[in-house]
């Protein structure tokens, strides 16, 4: 039940159902989710640790601002780790990996065309997970799992706008660079992808 409360509240924050600044009352959330207060309180505590919720004891608990310090810090960590993963992945990348990334980018483009942001985020994750898997560094993968959710709201905003088509093009450039085993270009493109998650807003 704790995991269910956490997953559902986090998703509502990420997709904007619970907007920045929204008050989070454990009793109200428990009623809405059909759960008891205990798992909701635990979920809010975890979300506060992750930076998606701001909380001050005896004062307030609310959805954090999209552009909080935690988000800016997370973007830097995520960018650097993806650069590292791509650098490690280039010499290991095989035709099957390239084909899987192209298929994911096709799904991403189709989702953008259909206005299905959730499907676009899923396809984007699948594409970027391939270099991370090829890098073979468990600490990198675990750290990305920890910090990427903080950036989901930015991804939702980007993927629901015309800027999403820039992502399709950058994905293509990244895949082309991996296919050619061009480390410099691959690292440059992946850096731009994560930097522009904030800069293009």
From TrEMBL:
CDD domains: WHTH_GntR (cd07377). The keyword DNA-binding applies. Residues 1-66 form the HTH gntR-type domain. The keyword Transcription applies. GO terms for molecular function: DNA binding; DNA-binding transcription factor activity. Keywords: DNA-binding, Transcription, Transcription regulation. SUPFAM superfamilies: GntR ligand-binding domain-like, Winged helix' DNA-binding domain. Transmembrane segments: none annotated. PROSITE patterns: HTH_GNTR (PS50949). InterPro entries: GntR_C (IPR011711), TF_FadR/GntR_C (IPR008920), Tscrpt_reg_HTH_GntR (IPR000524), WH-like_DNA-bd_sf (IPR036388), WH_DNA-bd_sf (IPR036390). This is GntR family transcriptional regulator. It comes from Amycolatopsis vastitatis. The lineage of its organism: Bacteria, Bacillati, Actinomycetota, Actinomycetes, Pseudonocardiales.
